[in-house]
Amino acid sequence: MSNKKMLAVDLGASSGRGIIGSWDGGKIALDEIHRFSNDTVMMPGGFFWDTLRLLFEIKTAILKASHAGGIDTIGIDTWGVDYGYLDKTGTLLSNPYHYRDTRTEGIQDYVFSKFLSKSELYAKTGIQSMNFNTIFQMAADLRDRPWIVENAESMLHMPDLLGYMLTGQKASEYTIASTGALLDAKARNFDYDIIKKFGIPERLFCQLVQPGYNLGKLLPSIEEETGFTGADVIKVASHDTASAVLSVPAKCKDFLYISSGTWSLMGTESDEPVLTSLSEKYDFTNEGGVNGTIRVLRNIMGLWLEQESRRQWKREGKTYSFDDLSNMALASKPLQCFINPDDQLFSTAGNMPKRICEYCEKTGQHVPENVGEIVRCIFDSLALRYRWTAEKLEELTGKKYPVINIVGGGTKEEMLSQFAADATHKTVCAGPVEATALGNIAAQCIASGEIKDIWEARDVIRASAEVKEYAPNTATAAQWDEAYGKFTSLLGE
User: Fold this and answer.
1) Residues 343, 312: Cα–Cα separation, whole Å
2) Would residue 82 show up in a list of annotated catalytic residues for this protein?
3) What does the pLDDT look like over 170-184, one tens digit per residue?
4) pLDDT tens digits, residue range 48-62?
5) Given 141, 240, 342, 422, which residue is catalytic?
């Protein structure tokens, strides 16, 4: 019987975890051994990630794993697009910017007027145009602080940067690199023609490697700090959504997924990128997956809307648990008003409840009158956005998808899973909750030869995790159809 132990370091936008995955040859068991906050820093010059603190927490997780009996391998996954620069001595030149930093406001207009058109960029990279894409952030660096780029020897995305800090080895993992509009979607390598047009030095880009690549052992100094585990650092699907999609417990090749959390990443898995005028029009992105797959998806604002509203209420002296918010929303009248979750109005931190009310007033709708109505507006709107996205994916691929698999922390919002079923008229299978960690561990198992491929991994995950099914409520179907008509009018359709 196998008895492998692997450490998944899963870093999200607000928190991180160290989770040990134990593989017995049939199932993966998870044990969270370290949890910590990911506290961003606003200071003169911008909005940054506290990278050195994250390194400290990762080392703490490895030490705890050592005390818990040791580990064989380590994998790191994080959010996409953000990165750090290293100088010729291997020293971090500046703390990495947070993707919500305001320096990229208006950057797309600057780029498309100076370097190339939006359509030209999409035709090569297949990436949804968002102002925080890596290539736009690097354009802002060259425009606003060129001395940093001039003194940089290399650029690494966050999980690659942290892997380098642990091992001293540089490599760019495919799934995380694919998030930033730097790769040729078809060739699946850095697009140096695009990179040259932006004036970005080619020297910054390291060897591109696939999930499963062994980065090597921990540096001796790190080993001394963390208990001499002897563990190898494995390049997993280091974009957290790629890890989450690996863990989707689908039984057939054609499926829809939503990786639900701060963002709702909704899409399907494909053998090839979808690069058409329609995919560009609908702003779908093509990101890398495991075993040569492409994640054709759309970034939807997700539970950020509820999370930021909750922070605002807390600032006002009103503290609610997420269960409190769900109960108040459920008690509110359904389908009274809607927002476009992806409107730029809602993309930055601040008074989210006020913005939602102002949006509803501006669009001639019922204006939410209390906390419950605001949360209900968020959940109804997300469910309707899922329907729009599902319809567009079916149009793009020519396929019908009867089931939506929702994975990740957002599956704890059972009401939203039910609304997704009701709005789309599709069965929703929700779970696993720990999708990213399971995908991270599964990739380590594939790398070590314990699991054959992604389909065997999905069989294992179905056996290892709870999945709950939600059937659409036929009694409310007409109400949701009517609401969808109102919702699409907000999108200009």
Assistant:
1) 19
2) no
3) 999 999 999 999 999
4) 999 999 999 999 999
5) 240
